[in-house]
């Protein structure tokens, strides 16, 4: 039989786990609860339970793990605020616990690798993924590998500054970050501001305003929804334009919960992107991610098999 | 004896050439005139003249060539406006003419590699160089290699948009590019605008205003000079901040004729850089380039020896 591996996506509340064969097919997936104190021991125990006669350790190519924090080469996690971790040698610890080669990455970077390996970006070795979720994450893939950067901050696209006039403060302490406009939180913030300023909208009495409601309103032709979608597109376009001027990827992949709105997001970005790039960078494809919440475990497996 | 190689920096008016030993020392350098029609044949003839009993072809590791235009992998030059070239297989042509392995790069990218190999950025495999000359060029080096990008537009930092309100048009056809503020031309433009607006300055009657004159005035405490230097620093800082958010280099190297002004340029950038990056990217070193006009030939040699 061929090789297989484990993909382990460690989040703040649950750990998503999967077993993959070398051709990229998902053999099995499951979840365990995240314990901040014993996460790695719990993962190791779950890995061992899944080593069977059918899937023996000697056929296992390794374990890929992603975490919500900066990772530097050598598999060292610098910190994970959500997990309460300080500097942790995740690679060393997992290899000690399981005796299997372990590969470690940042969650947004690894999701990008997953989309490259088996998702919307399949077939493109050079791509940039932007994950529009509660925040905005990013991953830069060059030559089929994650660009982690010297401080584990490669692809931290959500904190590119796109508005030098912003007065509100981003979660990172700066002002005018892409995340303040293009995340689910940012979309709600833009909508609330417009409502407070008296904009005409069907959302006026929506107490629990969500990004989905705003984008659904846009699709239904609501003027405020359309305005926020247009702003979202502009901010993403100028960020992607400046990214293209630096790394010139083959494609951009747009994922995360907000991207579930579909092609309206792509259209909103493409409306402005060409205005802000030089000639040879115009017309770069923007593609929707396809793996959803499984991008992490796919990317973890991709790290193992692309080594 | 050890290996040696040729470094060939093709510019619009002259071709700079050098012979280097593997340890990075320059054995000899010379120039030939650029002929748009016969540039590659002329270079090949000059290379062959320098193959001697002391430096025989069998000890030559190859030829590195840079050109002022976009280059994609495989050594294909997409175009060189200054040379009147359309798509040209520079690698194939030189290998046919000389029978030596040839490596081809964009001039700004290769200058960055030169500074990494033997200049201001020596010892850092991950760095971004910004060349402040007539225009603004850039080169991104990751893992010791040039990031050329899928259209040869990797590191085209001069055309990142840093001012969304600009009304003047950049040479590239866009508005608000870094080059409009941080090049020699851009510095003169900013100074002229301020003078027209009535700014107080010793440069008021300087008919042939140069970037050097503006920066010298700043060093002497001239209010307009200081204002332009401050603007230059801000624009470079916001561009470098967004670059750092994407590729997280170890250092930035600042070169080109404008950087001859020295540490005042570094100070002007560092004044604003930290404001626009997330915590883990603050305090990145900005370093002056040291190779001057030889950065190109050094980088060409670096391409050969880093292969």
Structure notes:
Two copies of one chain form a homodimer. The first copy, chain A, is α/β, with parallel strands linked by helices and 307 residues long. In chain A, 34% of the residues lie in helices and 21% in strands. Chain A has helices at residues 39-49, 90-98, 107-118, 179-182, 184-196, 211-219, 223-247, 263-273, 295-305; strands spanning 4-10, 14-21, 26-33, 60-67, 71-72, 76-77, 88-89, 102-106, 127-132, 136-142, 145-146, 251-255, 286-288. In chain A, strands 3-2-1-4-8 form a five-stranded mixed sheet. The first copy, chain A, has a five-stranded mixed sheet with strand order 11-10-9-12-13, sandwiched between helices. In chain A, a hairpin with a 3-residue loop joins strand 1 (4-10) and strand 2. The first copy, chain A, is globular and about 65 Å long. The first copy, chain A, starts with a strand and ends with a helix. The model of chain A has no long low-confidence stretch (mean pLDDT 95). At the A-B interface, strand 10 and helix 7 of A face strand 10 and helix 7 of B.
Write a concise keyword list for the protein shown above:
307 residues; 9 helices; alpha/beta; Nucleotidyltransferase, domain 5; 2 domains; 5-stranded mixed β-sheet; 13 strands; homodimer
């Amino acid at each position: 039989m061929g090789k297989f591996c484990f993909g382990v996506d460690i989040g703040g509340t649950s750990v998503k786990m999967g077993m993959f064969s070398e051709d990229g097919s998902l053999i099995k997936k499951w979840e365990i609860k995240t314990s901040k104190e014993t996460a790695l021991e719990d993962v190791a125990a779950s890995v061992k339970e899944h080593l069977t006669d059918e899937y023996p350790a000697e056929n296992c190519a390794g374990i890929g793990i992603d975490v919500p924090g900066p990772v530097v080469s050598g598999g060292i996690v610098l910190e994970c605020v959500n997990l309460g971790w300080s500097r942790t040698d995740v690679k060393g610890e997992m290899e000690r616990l399981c005796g299997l080669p372990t590969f470690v990455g940042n969650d947004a970077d690894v999701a990008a690798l997953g989309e490259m390996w088996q998702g919307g970006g399949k077939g493109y070795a050079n791509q940039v993924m932007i994950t529009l979720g509660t925040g905005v994450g990013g991953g830069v893939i060059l030559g089929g590998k994650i660009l982690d950067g010297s401080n584990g901050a490669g692809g931290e696209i959500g904190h590119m500054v796109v508005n030098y006039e912003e007065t509100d403060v981003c979660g990172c302490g700066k002002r005018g970050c892409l995340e303040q406009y293009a995340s689910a939180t940012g979309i709600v913030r833009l909508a609330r501001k417009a409502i407070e300023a008296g904009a005409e909208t069907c959302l006026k009495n929506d107490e629990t305003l969500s990004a989905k409601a705003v984008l659904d309103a846009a699709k239904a032709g609501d003027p405020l929804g359309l305005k926020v979608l247009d702003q979202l597109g502009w901010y993403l376009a100028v960020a992607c334009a400046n990214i293209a001027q630096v790394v010139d990827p083959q494609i951009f992949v747009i994922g995360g919960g907000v991207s579930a709105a579909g092609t309206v997001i792509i259209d909103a970005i493409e409306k402005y992107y060409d205005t802000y790039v030089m000639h040879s960078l115009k017309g770069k494809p923007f593609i929707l991610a396809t793996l959803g919440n499984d991008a992490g475990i796919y990317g973890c497996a991709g790290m193992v098999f692309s080594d």
